[in-house]
Amino acid sequence: MIRSFLVLLCAFLAALPLSAVPKTLRVLTHSSFAATQSIISAFETANDVKVQFSAGGDAGETLNKAILSKSSPLADVLYGVDNTFLGRALAADILERYDSPALSSIPAEFQSDPSHRLLPVDYGFISLNYDRAWFAAHSLVVPRTLEDLVRAPYKGLLVVENPATSSPGLAFLLATIARFGETGAMTWRSYWAGLKQNDVMVVNGWDDGYYNQFSAQGKGKRPIVVSYATSPAYELYNAPAPRPATPPTGNILPEGSSFRQIEYVGILKGAKEPDLARRFVDFMLSETFQADIPLQMWVYPARNGVAVPEIFRTFAPVPAAPASIEPSTIDANREAWIKAWTRIVLE
Questions:
Q1: pLDDT in tens, the chain (347 residues)
Q2: Coil, strand or helix: which one is 247?
């Protein structure tokens, strides 16, 4: 009887249409990826697929994993490469070209890859955050420029992340390079020498800098930290009830102090599900997914016409004059700049 049942069961399963067993789409992301589950579920239902997300660490770590697994890709889709690593990703030749129809809704200023192997999804700004209560209690004026941070009143107040181990740390280094350059009365190298002399603290990652060393979190003693321009909005949004009128932190956004990060998505060569991968890229650039981005990943949607929440407009303003360096220039100089920074600041 048992044998007969198994025979019938196998016959039944064999008769099922292939679509009854959803395919799996593998998506490799950085660790900060987030999306509303109902939106992902809607994509899965519409495409008869199960989306399997894997977190690869920060942007640099995730890209390294994709490159090292080139011969046997870990995923079909790669999300989270930013403009500090765009050149490296393209040089590694791990991505397929995809001319998504949704690109017509993405501003040209975000489309850094003319080969359309990496398509822009979102952008944000690495900036300086400060502890409002600390500055009020110490009757000290909030610094207005990067140059202020090498001056005596601000000695021992700043914590930064190491650019060799942290994406925000690298972005802030790039902001100083864009701001000061290689020549003039103050170069980026002399600026960092000044920060070292003014007792800058260097930590390996953002979590340590923001949650352990930054005074606004109640643990640290330093009231200025390299973080994100959306951090104050995030702090207010997640504040326990009753929610205060203003966040406990603020942004320092002088000209050239914030670096604009653009994050991209691409289809990996050798993808097992290339058609579904293309659909997922279109989905990430769609109005539905783009509108979900701000309150999930706390960055700005790349697509034209997608409104951001009021809390963004009030407490996460887009810097008027962010720092910018061409991805090709970053790629050509990134390692040399990091080595020079290490000699100046850590040795």
A1: 555 555 555 555 455 555 568 999 999 999 999 999 999 999 999 999 999 999 998 888 899 999 999 999 999 999 999 999 999 999 999 999 999 999 999 999 999 999 999 999 999 999 999 999 999 999 999 999 999 999 999 999 999 999 998 899 999 999 999 999 999 999 999 999 999 999 999 999 999 999 999 999 878 999 999 999 999 999 999 999 999 999 999 999 988 889 999 999 999 999 999 999 999 999 999 999 999 999 999 999 999 999 999 999 999 989 988 998 999 999 999 999 999 999 999 99
A2: coil
Among residues 121, 49, 45, which one has the least CA distance to residue 274?
Answer: 49
Q: Give me the CATH topology for the region 125-259+319-345.
A: D-Maltodextrin-Binding Protein; domain 2 (3.40.190)
Q: What's the rounded Cα separation, in Å, for the pair 324 and 212?
A: 29
**CATH classification code of 11-123+261-315:** 3.40.190.10
* Domain edges within the chain: 11-123+261-315, 125-259+319-345
Whole-structure pTM value: 0.89
Q: How far apart are CA 206 and CA 161, in angstroms?
A: 6
Can 11-123+261-315 and 125-259+319-345 be said to share one CATH topology?
yes
